[in-house]
Structures are given as structure tokens and as C-alpha cells.
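Summary for the steering committee. The consortium agreed at its last meeting that each partner would contribute one worked example illustrating the joint modelling workflow. Our contribution is presented below. We chose a case with several input lines so that the handling of multiple components could be demonstrated. No manual editing was applied between input and output; the record is shown as generated.
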Amino acid sequence: MKKHFLLTAFAALTLISCNNEGSTTNTVESMKTPQMENFDKAFKSLGDPQNRPTEEEKKRNTSELSDRRKALLVPASKELILSSGVTEAELMRKTGGDMSQIIVWATQIYMKKSEEIRKNIKSEK
Amino acid sequence: MKKVLAILSLAACSLGYAQKGPLILNNYSVYEFRGVIFASNELGTNCYPYITSQGPDEIIIPADSHMGNGKALIYDNYRDQFTNSLYPTGIWRVTLSNTSSTQSPWNAPSLLPTGVISANTRWSGTKFGMFHPGTNDGVWGFGGPLVLPNSCYDAPSNITTPDGNSAEIFTITVDKVTTTYIQLY
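What follows is the complete predicted structure of the assembly.
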């Protein structure tokens, strides 16, 4: 009887442990900071009807994302940079307020943070 | 994990490298992307050389694959994408003129990031179709060529379908590093 009980307990523990494993692999997205989520949303929002290229922008004949649309990415980019411990003054000094520099810097931080999250999840296992 | 690290370190030192920067493809749509991507030289006659992904025949990127969930296609250059990317291209078609077109493996010496071809080409477009995941049912109007302006191809840099899906290609440039984005919404 005791043996059965132990076996059942062991099986239950195994199940719980496997369950946890499943849930940790699913937390990559849930472990993202709000700033990272907003950065994702900003990039995706470029496809919203009001944010798509205007007729005028289509005629520009240049590859570069228009300033109007870059500006849609800047608030979330700034937020993300500041959340990494950089001060507003530093941000302005390093980028001179240039939108492309702010976006690219934020992208680098984003990728680094995603990587850290992935690493943490792996080491927890 | 190693992949992303490698991508990061590559991005960090890509300033001195050719190809002028990475290509990032974000598929935010509920459809599967199937297509090729290419690069070309707008300063050359008829944009030669141009480089097209050819092995696999089609790069397949599942629905909802983007930076936000770590499933975006990210290519740093013709070579390193093979080891760093989730969607490796093993074979490139290299067209130097209308009489010279050859297949090159990803690690061909001619395609090195520091080589002449890399130095003189940039990511410039895609030819693709969108499909209902796992089927051969294409999504009407959601596909075609998509190229950067001035790339010798007469094709748009963005499209919108009657059903409200859209696709576009654009760049974000800082100094000498150009990041090229292909986005499907």
C-alpha cells in the first residue's frame, strides 16, 4: 500500500515537473518587459491603415522609411532605451535626437534582452 | 541562443562589412510566406550582379513569425545567414550579366562578406506568395514582387490587398549601415 502511495506521489511529481517545463518554454513572450512589448507593437502598427505609406510617400522614390513613419517607432524605441538604464541626457547626446539612430539602438537592446530572457529560461531548466 | 548572439556580434561589427546591413523579414499575418529574396547592384548596368535565393526553391516562413516572438527571418549576409538564421539559404544564384549566371553555395569564396559581390550589392526585394498555412491555397492578391525603389525592377515597394492585408519593403539607415525590412501584415 505504502509502495503504491509512493509510486503515485512520484508519478504526480513527474507530471507536475513536466508540466512546468511546458509552461517555462511558453514564457519567452510573457517575460518580455512592457517596453519590449510596446516596441513590438510599434513595428507591427506600421501596417495599420492610417500608418501605411501615403500616396505622397509612395511617390518619393526612396527606400528609406519616411520621417512620418519613423516617428511612429520613436516613442517606443526611446522608452526601451531608457528602460535599459540610459538617461534621457545620454540618449540625446549619443543620438542627437536622430530618429534612425534611436530606432536602431532600441533594436539592438531589444535583441539583447530577448537573448537574456532565452538564456534565463534555459538555465532554469 | 548562439544564433542570436552571433547575429548581434555581426550586427555590431557590420559597419566594416559589406552588404551594408541585415535583412529582417517580419511576417505579422496569419498566412504563410513562400518566396525568394534577392539583392542587386543599382549602380551597375541592369543591376548586375544580382543574387537570388535558390536553395530551397522557396523560403517558407510560417504565419506569425516576427521579431516579437523571435521567429523573424534575419540575414546578415549571404554566408553567415546559413549558420545564424532560422531559415537558411544553402544556394544562391549569382547573375553577373545576361550570359553569366551560376549557382553558388552559401560558403562560396565569391560570396564572402568582404568580397566584391557583397560590397557591390544590397538587399533589394522579394518575390513571394502568401498561403493558408500548410496548404497550397494562395491568398488572392497577397503576393508578387516587392522591391526597393531604384532597383531596376518595375515593381512596387508596397501592396495592399482588397481584404486589407499589406506588405512592404523599406530601409532604416544609420551612417553606413542599412537595415532592410520586409514586413507582411
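Residues 2-184 of chain B form one domain. The longest helix of chain B spans residues 2-12.
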